[in-house]
Amino acid sequence: MYPRTLPGLFDRALRKYADRTALKDGTQSLTYGDVDDRSAKVAAALVTLGMEQTDRVGVLLGNAAEGPVMDIGIARAGAARLPLNPQHSTQELQYLLTDAGVETLVCNAA
After folding, report:
1. Labelling 6: which of 73, 77, 80, 105 has CA 20 to 30 A away?
2. What is the pTM of this model?
Protein backbone atom coordinates (compact mmCIF):
# COMPACT_ATOMS: atom_id res chain seq x y z
CA MET A 1 0.00 0.00 0.00
CA TYR A 2 1.30 3.46 -0.93
CA PRO A 3 1.53 6.31 1.55
CA ARG A 4 -1.39 8.71 1.11
CA THR A 5 0.43 11.97 1.60
CA LEU A 6 2.85 13.82 -0.66
CA PRO A 7 5.63 13.69 1.94
CA GLY A 8 4.99 9.96 2.34
CA LEU A 9 5.36 9.43 -1.39
CA PHE A 10 8.58 11.45 -1.38
CA ASP A 11 9.93 9.41 1.53
CA ARG A 12 9.26 6.15 -0.24
CA ALA A 13 10.79 7.22 -3.56
CA LEU A 14 13.80 8.95 -2.02
CA ARG A 15 14.73 5.89 0.01
CA LYS A 16 13.99 3.36 -2.74
CA TYR A 17 16.29 5.10 -5.23
CA ALA A 18 18.82 6.54 -2.74
CA ASP A 19 21.90 5.87 -4.90
CA ARG A 20 20.48 7.14 -8.19
CA THR A 21 20.99 10.65 -9.52
CA ALA A 22 17.94 12.78 -8.81
CA LEU A 23 18.97 16.33 -9.72
CA LYS A 24 21.66 18.06 -11.73
CA ASP A 25 22.30 21.72 -12.22
CA GLY A 26 25.30 23.59 -13.55
CA THR A 27 27.32 23.15 -10.37
CA GLN A 28 26.17 20.02 -8.60
CA SER A 29 24.59 16.60 -8.86
CA LEU A 30 22.44 15.16 -6.08
CA THR A 31 21.33 11.59 -5.51
CA TYR A 32 17.89 10.76 -4.16
CA GLY A 33 19.64 10.01 -0.86
CA ASP A 34 21.15 13.50 -0.87
CA VAL A 35 17.72 14.99 -1.54
CA ASP A 36 16.28 12.89 1.29
CA ASP A 37 18.93 14.10 3.77
CA ARG A 38 18.81 17.75 2.75
CA SER A 39 15.03 17.98 2.61
CA ALA A 40 14.77 16.35 6.05
CA LYS A 41 17.12 19.06 7.36
CA VAL A 42 14.98 21.76 5.73
CA ALA A 43 11.85 20.32 7.38
CA ALA A 44 13.56 20.11 10.77
CA ALA A 45 14.82 23.70 10.47
CA LEU A 46 11.34 24.97 9.61
CA VAL A 47 9.82 23.17 12.58
CA THR A 48 12.59 24.55 14.82
CA LEU A 49 11.70 28.04 13.60
CA GLY A 50 8.16 27.43 14.82
CA MET A 51 6.60 26.52 11.48
CA GLU A 52 3.22 24.90 11.85
CA GLN A 53 1.12 22.93 9.41
CA THR A 54 -0.58 25.14 6.83
CA ASP A 55 1.86 28.01 7.44
CA ARG A 56 3.12 29.55 4.22
CA VAL A 57 6.74 29.61 3.09
CA GLY A 58 7.88 31.89 0.29
CA VAL A 59 10.57 30.37 -1.92
CA LEU A 60 12.72 32.83 -3.85
CA LEU A 61 15.39 30.77 -5.62
CA GLY A 62 16.69 30.61 -9.15
CA ASN A 63 16.87 27.42 -11.18
CA ALA A 64 19.09 25.31 -8.95
CA ALA A 65 19.02 21.96 -7.21
CA GLU A 66 18.03 23.69 -3.97
CA GLY A 67 14.53 24.38 -5.33
CA PRO A 68 13.18 20.81 -5.34
CA VAL A 69 15.02 20.07 -2.07
CA MET A 70 13.29 23.06 -0.51
CA ASP A 71 9.90 22.04 -1.92
CA ILE A 72 10.16 18.54 -0.45
CA GLY A 73 11.36 19.90 2.90
CA ILE A 74 8.44 22.32 3.05
CA ALA A 75 5.99 19.52 2.25
CA ARG A 76 7.56 17.35 4.96
CA ALA A 77 7.07 20.17 7.47
CA GLY A 78 3.40 20.31 6.48
CA ALA A 79 3.65 23.88 5.25
CA ALA A 80 2.44 25.43 2.00
CA ARG A 81 4.92 26.74 -0.58
CA LEU A 82 4.58 30.05 -2.39
CA PRO A 83 6.95 30.08 -5.38
CA LEU A 84 8.37 33.52 -6.11
CA ASN A 85 10.13 34.76 -9.22
CA PRO A 86 13.52 36.43 -8.63
CA GLN A 87 12.82 38.66 -11.64
CA HIS A 88 9.90 40.38 -9.91
CA SER A 89 10.48 43.83 -8.47
CA THR A 90 10.83 44.33 -4.73
CA GLN A 91 7.39 45.96 -4.71
CA GLU A 92 5.78 42.97 -6.47
CA LEU A 93 7.45 40.51 -4.12
CA GLN A 94 6.37 42.50 -1.09
CA TYR A 95 2.77 42.48 -2.30
CA LEU A 96 2.80 38.73 -2.94
CA LEU A 97 4.33 37.96 0.46
CA THR A 98 1.86 40.18 2.29
CA ASP A 99 -1.19 39.06 0.32
CA ALA A 100 -0.39 35.37 0.86
CA GLY A 101 0.39 35.81 4.55
CA VAL A 102 3.84 34.28 4.24
CA GLU A 103 5.45 33.65 7.63
CA THR A 104 8.88 32.54 6.35
CA LEU A 105 10.92 33.41 3.26
CA VAL A 106 13.66 31.15 1.90
CA CYS A 107 16.14 32.68 -0.53
CA ASN A 108 19.76 32.48 -1.57
CA ALA A 109 22.40 35.21 -1.62
CA ALA A 110 21.62 36.11 -5.24
Report:
1. 105
2. 0.84
